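Input:
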Amino acid sequence: MKQAVYEITENIRIAKDIYKMILAGDTSDITKPGQFINIQLEGRYLRRPISVCDYDENTITIIYKVVGGGTEDMSLMLPGTKLDILIGLGNGFDTSKCAGDALLIGGGVGVPPMYNLAKTLISEGKSVSVILGFNTSEDVFYSEEFQALGAKVYVATADGSVGTKGFVTDVMKNLTYSYFFTCGPEPMFKAIEKLASTSGQYSFEERMGCGFGACMGCSCKTKYGNKRICKDGPVLEREEIIW
Amino acid sequence: MVDTKVNLSGLELTNPIIPASGTFGYGYEFAELYDINILGSFSFKGTTKEPRFGNDTPRIAECTEGMINSVGLQNPGIDKVISEELPKLRKCFNKPVVANISGFSIDEYAYCCERIDKEDGVGLIEVNVSCPNVHNGGMSFGTDPKCAAEVTKAVKAVTTKPVYIKLSPNVTDIASIAKACEEAGADGISLINTLMGMRIDLKTGKPVIANKAGGFSGRAIFPVAVRMVYQVYEAVNIPIIGMGGVSTAEDVIELMLAGASAVQVGAENLINPYASKDIVEDLPRVMKKYNITSLKDIIGGAH
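Output:
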């Protein structure tokens, strides 16, 4: 973990209420896909935890949804704005557990962390299929970006306006895979849990205080004891989760 | 050179800054970020006899200049704290630590305090009779002078180290409770714990926090802390550890002028993990600005 000041170089709308922000600064504390950053916003007491969509040596890309006042403030920020951010938070996905055919399932704002994960798995020589789940066509983002990485991409929308009509599990049931990774809303997790036939990793969301393991605000029970979503998570292995 | 040393019932601190219980874990998360030996001390996570998971989530709600938490005393229990957490803590902190103890009966308070009193690294015992987030315990002891006095007496009977009673601000007359603790033998008073608060989510129409209400902390509560430390200083002759919304070195000076001998930093550590370090490092500058040569000289200076 590291605290530093980052400069916004891009902040654009890419779907309904969904924005992509690129931040410039030192990214050396980000070690794995699936980690998150915690952004201080003027006039807001708590930082805003947002998953890392992608990063390179000098930039971090995040994709966030406007859900309240804090993210609305973010959506209005102009390039050149400087932000105080904690980076390198959370355990991230462990790609070493996946030997071959990876299935990545992202639902809504659970899609962004799947991007760097797909990139990492592909660079490790593993084949990657991605299912992106949204409500309707105007919510859809990043399907082309995943394709450009070399992943096989399936989109599901609840109203059928793009891709398969239905939920991510309506696609998942017809695919073969040897390991899965997922991030998204809990109802989606429960449907995946019922259907999945292999081991996998789930990235959870919880209301956080500090984001770095100090306050115990985001604790959950697992088969291996109490864990903090922010520090011991957000990624938990399927085998340890108590549903 | 300015002198930042303060003294709590014989325990000499190089400076008055003590991260508050529940905002600093058992120290080692912060030791990854900076050398925590620059702190005066720190108060470790509230510890109970049995391990506790705490309350359901969500446990956190944001407020203007503050937050509400309802963690519910999640901790591994006194046995594991002694066998696992303290040895880990000792590797990153070589000064005496403040042991924060909670309980659900007078016997539990006495049991845990007697156990922790025997630990070498413990410099002071802070007895939390003011947790707002657990039912049938904690705060109920701290809202009644007789109960607070009974806990104090029971703990004092089985300990050798200084015992500070951590009081709740959710009372009508804080001075009478502090006085009852002093008469029962307390070596000092810690205050304030969090204020009871609630937020309601307009989208769902329901409280944000699973436990509905929780403890409100952060910069917004600082004036309440100053007022209560001031009142308690008038009522007792034992040292006070002041806390509540402290976020700057200026706040430290202000709380000491109100009557605090040392100052805890709480919620600020959660939004800025370097907050306690920043305050320690900024303190000499602020002392010089206000012509303070020794912090000991200003304690209670506002009276």
